[in-house]
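Page 42, continued from yesterday. The earlier attempt failed because a stray header line got pasted into the input along with the sequence. Redoing it now with the clean sequence only.
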Amino acid sequence: MNRRAVTKKSALRCKGLDANGKPCRFVALKGSVFCRKHHRPPATMVSIVSLPDAQPCDLLEKFLEVAAFWEYLESTRSASLKSKAAFSIVIKPDLEHFSADSSRGTSPRLVEHLIALLHRRGYPRVTVADGPGNAAAWLDNRDVAVLADLAGYRYETDDGDAYEVLDLAEDCIEAGFEVGKALFGTRLSKPWIEADFRICFGKNKTHEEYNFALCLYTLLGVLPFHDKEYHCYARLPAPEIACELLHRTPVHFSLIDAVISNHGADGVRMNNPLPTNTIIGSQSLLLTDMAGALKMGLDPYASPLNAHALRTIGLPLQYGIAGDLTPYLGWKNVPPLLADSVRKRNRVALLNRSVQPWTHAVDRTYFPFKRELDDRINLTIAPLLSGLDDHPFKLLAAVIANYLLAEGGRALETYRILYAKEKIYRKQTSIGVDAARFTDHDYTNIPDYVEPLEMIAASAVPDRNGLRWRTIDRSVVIAFKRILPFAFDAFTARLDIASAIRIMNDNIGGAVVPVLRNDRGEVVYQIERDIYLPQPNWMALFGGDYIDVTKLELVRRSPHEHAIYWKTIASINDSARFDDGIVRFTRAGDENVSVTIVARQDFTLPLIWQMFNLDLLPHLKHPLVSDAYLTYFGRTIANYEAAFAGRDVRTGRDFFETYGEPDGPTPHYFTETLFKKIMATAPIVEIVKALIEKGPTALTEINPMTQEASSMASSVVSALSGAINDLLDSIRKDLWPAVAPDGKVSS
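This time it went through. Structure tokens are written below.
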């Protein structure tokens, strides 16, 4: 190692020896070597450069100089041992353009000037790349190459340097996402994975759900899914996959185009430009986004995407800020009430995917709609949603509509939880924790904690259902035992004890990572994240949340008993304080097996139930607890019996992993039938417009005695009646199978 100091000052101080005459310790960091005693590695800096009167290209040049971009690029290239001619650079801009003069995407002029500057510095292998955007499912001309052309990318810089625009949904290879990751098995584009230097060039804009949409939001475009709404926001948890993507393919440098920003309540839906004449950037993507959010006057944790990343990955250990963090003059953020309503609306699986086409301002000359219904609804709704910042009635109407949609979706989901669980979509997630931070002792100590709980529960007097349970620190400690008429060896051969938790009643998904296996390949240690329906199920009527718990698990096997011990280590949604226990399969003679379940549980109650202290009403609480556990354990035992028989006992249905992809099923939009009659009725549109433009006083202007008003009311009632019938018919088809004339059941 070349023991050299980095600065002249440290070079004078460091002679290779410390005060005791022993050699100094050196550390390599990003191509440089530092003396730990005399020189601390430099902090990761985020630079904020604002020049009110500068041209955009001049501002970019100034930023790259201030941010020491060229020095960092050269040190990275030097560390790669590649020549400049062989060093590949990929720029990922925000391509969410919906018109030729859109302020919702990264400026093509800035991207092309960055390419020109890279060429001038001797880096010829520069490409622009993006994957299919959110709008690709409902707009034409959204292929990456076509979109780039229509947005203003000329495939050649002013200096005459040609460049390519790559589609990151093509030339995909195995990405190496580990077991237990939400993106396990997902492929990524080879040029992106193998790039020597990745640049994320985001846009400075607000987002109605996430509050802001900067570089981390832009990074999601790297994923090759053609139907982004389905795969990135419904099938998979967006905050988790954003972190996994950033961890697997780190971005070397991130920039935010804040020359002309897009602000206000509809920063991703409408063009609402504001000159801010700023560029922000850093080697750390999350640090860049933090500075961008602070410049907006927002909490960097206001976006669920960035909040999860900041808590999971975090900022650099040492970082600094160069520039002014004073919020932009005249900047408008998304009203918190609107953001909350959109967030709740989008919790309903696939609802946002249907609503999105209706709310965006789109230049149909460039991007025509794929479906006529979306086009017709967009013509009506999108103009009404413009200018929410300046029109309180519009904002109120949007908030109310979002909450109504959210409540409608929640009502349907509640119905399914209670009566049609097979229609609920299963959750595909990561384990949510770093498996490497747990030691052998963390696993081997679990029995010492949970085994005494069995003794505590066993000492209780059986209740009216024959269950033995007690409370400790407001948690329920309970034991349940059942003898099944199956031979122990046959039962344990077909039903692996390591899977006993995830095939319990109402398990709706999660992830599992085997950590240690024995010589026979059997799991000994594992980390498991389990998601369950609200317990008991009727808690969904009161807003009960899904139970989401991550556990450490130890498995023990002997000739006469198989057991799994577990302890909760995390609850991502704070739905559980305790969910610990044991499941034992014990030999009970030659032809029977004993199943014992021990649990300590304390789940978060819905807000309305938290208002009452049921401990003060034991005659009410005890029957509720006993009946709930009797039902749950009984159904869990039924699952074990069904699994032994070889049947699929999982609750819910899986998302299609290829849905909306070129080789997958064609997307289906349930709203085609539901809204056709409503939106085709002109009087309804006129009434909505009047209410938004004039407020409640518009109702007083309608004379119910006139024939015109009577006709309008009749049309409205007729349309609503037809829409309700369509909705009921849609629900019937969704919840019950259709029976053909020959008596066969079709899915």
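Notes: The chain has a mean pLDDT of 85.
Reminder to self: strip header lines before submitting.
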